[in-house]
Amino acid sequence: MRRTTRLLLIAATVVLLLLLWFPASKSGKPTTGSTKPGAKSQIAAPPTSLVATHSNSGAGLVTLKHLVADAGCPPPKAALIGIFTVAGAKNAQTRQLLRQKYRTLNANLDHEHKVDFKFVLGNSADFELDFHIATEQTVFPDETFVTDELEDRDSGKILAWFKYARSQMYSVHPVHKNQFCLRYRFIGKGDEDAVWHSERLANALVELPSDQSHYVGRSFTVPNYHMTGMLYLLSADIVEWINFSPVPVKHLKGVEDVQVGKWVLEGGFVLNKVDLKTKFHDLEESPMFNANYATHETIAIHWCKDPARMFRCMSVLFDSSILNPATAFRLSRFPSIKNRADRFQLNMTTTNTTLNLITEEIQQLYTKNKNKITLKEIDSILVKPFILSWCARLNQTTPTAEQISHIGYDVGIRAAVRDWKKGEIDDMIVLFILRTIRIPELGLGWMWWEQTEAAKQEVMTLVRKQGKLSTAEVDKVLKDIAAKPFP
């Protein structure tokens, strides 16, 4: 019975992938292998290394012979990125979402700014997962690479990717025999739970000098010789060096982004390390050092680990937070608003009067904006009565519309990614009120507050005990905790 169920699941997956693939296959769009719009080139890699090293006098380093497009070659694309992922239905859904988004983005970019991608999976010893992999590789051959080794991110998968990427990095010269053209300026590695803005990424890459070696990403704090694994890119000459150098094999096992940093460090060549800093960051609730809010300068967002967070990553990165008409209509009506309030465990049990007023305000905004609304706006209106009530109990100034929007957004996103315990929603509202209003007034950073559990716990202990707090009591707790060493 169990085996029959598995086979039915596999068959359903095959049908789904074929249905997803069929329209794309008829679209007439160039495949990943195209190097020039309207023209196809033969992908082939040189049999020997094109990168020579020579001493850099006085520096004790080596300089790579840079790979610059030869005369007669079509211009290279900006990058090819391997997105590390694993087999499974949940991951396949994420891959399809990213696949469709990146295809759309690439279609609107000129050739030299295109950022191609391939999903990188390890082999599988599991019967069912092996069918998943085989099906996906059959349906999406141009966007899938499967290593020979069993799935394990930190046991050589990264080297397998770079070696494979090197085989895709060149095409046969259209005129000169036994010569090759560069297809990509950069080869990168990204995580499945990271999303990048193709145009912004390409703009950052193409402006880098082609006669230098580049290592692009978000530098880790300690140690600082490697870029974080969410997304990093190496110029083609470094990838060429990786393919032939004995250094990577010596540092094969271990966290992949750290190992790549060791390769580059031990290589000892002259390198332009391009740290894009806050342009590469995690979602704001991530516990990592690079958590941040998205801006119009954000290039890549990490920590998009579930459907709710992936929706937010896509929304804030591509300015697509406005819900489509059907979804906006559904979510702005009373049944959906009541369901959302129930999921948040908001205390509206007395009557439906409050909820009716909230629904009316949401529908007024929906109508005013010509049938357009965002989840942030819905959540802000939904929790506004509770925000105002708690601000009074905490003796905080009446929040501005912008602050209410910010608090509502924070409450909404936390509710979307976890199951609330009874009474926990009030804790979250209190904590986000303090983070949004009082923390900035005291000159303390929101990241300090987000990562300092002691301050949150002490505040909530007093709130539960007394039911309300004076501004002086709140400030004392925050200042006492801030005076202690950061954990």
In words, what does this structure look like?
By secondary structure, the protein is of the alpha/beta class. The protein is built from 18 helices and 14 strands. The chain has helices at 2-25, 89-107, 127-139, 157-167, 198-206, 236-244, 247-250, 256-267, 307-317, 325-331, 334-344, 353-368, 375-393, 401-416, 424-441, 446-451, 453-466, 471-482; strands at 53-56, 61-64, 77-84, 115-123, 144-150, 170-172, 180-182, 184-191, 194-196, 214-217, 231-235, 272-275, 280-282, 300-302. The strands form four sheets. The chain has a seven-stranded mixed beta sheet, with helices on both faces. Strands 9-14-13 form a three-stranded mixed beta sheet. Strands 1-2 form a two-stranded antiparallel sheet. α13 (375-393) packs across α14 and α13 (375-393) packs across α15 (424-441). The protein starts with a helix and ends in a 5-residue tail after the last helix. Mean pLDDT is 82; it is low at 1-12 and 14-38.
In short:
With 487 residues, the protein is of the alpha/beta class.
Please give a handful of descriptors for the protein shown.
alpha/beta, elongated, disordered N terminus, single chain, 14 strands, 7-stranded mixed β-sheet, 3-stranded mixed β-sheet, 18 helices, about 475 residues
Shape: elongated
Indicate the percent of residues in helices.
Answer: 40-55%
Number of helices: 18
Number of strands: 14
* Biggest sheet strand line-up: 5-4-3-8-11-10-12
Strand content: 5-15%
Low-confidence stretches: 1-12, 14-38
Mean pLDDT: 82
Radius of gyration from the alpha-carbon trace, in angstroms: 26 Å
What kind of sheet is the major sheet?
Answer: 7 strands, mixed
Span of the ends, CA to CA? 52 Å
What would you call the structural class? alpha/beta
